[in-house]
């Protein structure tokens, strides 16, 4: 590259990165209300709930939806998150009937419909546990960009390492954002009601 062109290339690269950085910063701070981040999260799926009913991506439509991925043998994060979701649904009162709330298994080998039914009996009755064969579950994990990996334990058993966030989907089944449970159930319920 000729020496006269090199400074121009460096300047153009610097200016371009400055513009991109400025746009990202303005969007993050709410200065560009019309700029939206692409959300390639979600997609077609077909699983079964704890009552044996088939649930598909079409089941999300018409109501805002909370989706949490986990497993019934989880020692802490999953039961804590499901308890917090239950508290939000309780704080919503009758409006909880206007929301979908799903617990999707990342461990289909152990999480049968019967296992999901027994496990979810300790939480709000609006929560539906979804499971299926490993291929069907794998398709959902991929569509929602969920990391899940079997981790062997010394005793021959295993646990699951997985993404632990709550997805908030709109009434059309499109991803809005992660849903924040680190606030009072009343505040979280008020936030969720905005999407009814």
Report what the structure shows.
The longest helix has 24 residues, at about 5-30. The relative contact order is 0.18. It is built from five helices and nine strands, in the order αβββαβαβαββββα. Strands 5-4-3-8-9 form a five-stranded mixed sheet. A hairpin with a 5-residue loop joins strand 8 and strand 9. The chain has helices spanning about 5-30, 75-90, 115-120, 135-145, 185-195; strands at about 45-50, 55, 65-70, 100-105, 125-130, 150, 160, 165-170, 175-180. It has about 200 residues and is α/β, with parallel strands linked by helices. The N and C termini lie far apart (about 60 Å). The model is unreliable at about 10-15 and about 20-25 (pLDDT under 50).
Q: Which residues form runs of ≥5 with pLDDT under 50? A: 11-16, 18-23
Structural class: alpha/beta
Quick one: overall form?
A: globular
- Overall residue-averaged pLDDT value: 87
Q: Specify Rg, calculated over alpha carbons.
A: 21 Å
């Amino acid at each position: 590259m000729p020496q006269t062109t090199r400074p121009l290339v460096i300047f153009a690269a610097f200016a371009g990165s400055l513009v991109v950085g400025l746009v990202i910063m303005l969007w993050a701070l709410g200065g560009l209300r019309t700029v939206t981040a692409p959300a390639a999260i979600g997609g077609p799926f077909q699983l079964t709930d704890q009552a044996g009913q088939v649930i598909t991506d079409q089941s999300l439509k018409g109501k805002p939806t909370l989706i949490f991925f986990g497993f019934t043998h989880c020692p802490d994060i999953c039961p804590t998150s499901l308890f917090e979701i239950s508290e939000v649904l309780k704080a919503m009162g009758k409006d909880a009937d206007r929301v979908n709330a799903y617990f999707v298994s990342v461990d289909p080998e152990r999480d049968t419909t019967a296992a999901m039914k027994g496990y979810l009996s300790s939480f709000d009755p609006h929560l539906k546990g979804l499971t299926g064969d490993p291929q069907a579950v794998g398709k959902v994990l991929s569509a929602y960009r969920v990391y899940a990996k079997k981790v062997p334990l010394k005793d021959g058993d295993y646990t699951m390492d997985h993404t632990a966030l709550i997805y908030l989907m709109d009434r059309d089944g499109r991803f809005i954002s992660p849903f924040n449970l680190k606030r009072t159930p009343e505040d979280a319920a008020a936030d969720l009601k905005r999407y009814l």
